[in-house]
Design goal:
Blueprint (H helix, E strand, L loop, with lengths): L1 H6 L4 H13 L3 H14 L4 H13 L3 H10 L7 H14 L3 H13 L4 H13 L3 H14 L2 H13 L9
Helix pairs in contact: 2-3, 3-4, 4-5, 5-6, 6-7, 6-8, 7-8, 8-9, 8-10
């Protein structure tokens, strides 16, 4: 990716891939630089914005990540995932009552992935993996693995997934 970016400093996909690699390596500053570079090229790049908020989330800076995810809740593509991330920020950030209200909202819109994954996260947070399992199994039967991974990656990063064998 370094060579691609060196030869084509406006290559947004290369910055995205390299930022993702840096994030996986927990090289937060380098990942942030890549996403900031994308935003210099395209200030409306939703993926770069989302990934910057995700960096904060993965560092457990939930209060810092939350406003960014809130700003994407009405986005047609990222809205459901952003709402789920807001829920996780509240749940893991010590605002369980707020998270419980958000969970009730997801329960009213059972046609989105957040419905399944938020319910699973609620039980995982409460150390009840057997109650989380049906939610995860249902979601796995409905959503493609690529989509599911967007929702499960946070739970994996926090150590809740994979679930222990029965």
């Amino acid at each position: 990716m370094d060579d691609i970016i060196k030869n084509d400093p406006a290559n947004i996909p290369a910055y995205t891939v390299r930022g993702s690699i840096h994030s996986k390596m927990k090289s937060w500053d380098l990942a942030k630089e890549d996403y900031d570079s994308i935003l210099q090229l395209d200030s409306n790049n939703t993926i770069a914005h989302f990934n910057l908020y995700e960096i904060e989330f993965m560092q457990k800076k939930y209060a810092d990540a939350r406003p960014g995810f809130v700003s994407l809740e009405h986005d047609l593509i990222w809205g459901d995932l952003a709402s789920y991330k807001v829920f996780l920020c509240d749940l893991f950030g010590g605002h369980e009552e707020v998270a419980q209200g958000e969970l009730a909202t997801f329960d009213k819109t059972a046609d989105e992935p957040s419905y399944y994954y938020a319910n699973a996260a609620w039980f995982l947070f409460r150390q009840r993996p057997d109650d989380a399992r049906p939610w995860l199994d249902s979601a796995a039967g409905i959503y493609a693995p690529e989509k599911a991974s967007l929702y499960t990656s946070s739970l994996e990063e926090l150590g809740y997934l994979p679930l222990p064998r029965k």
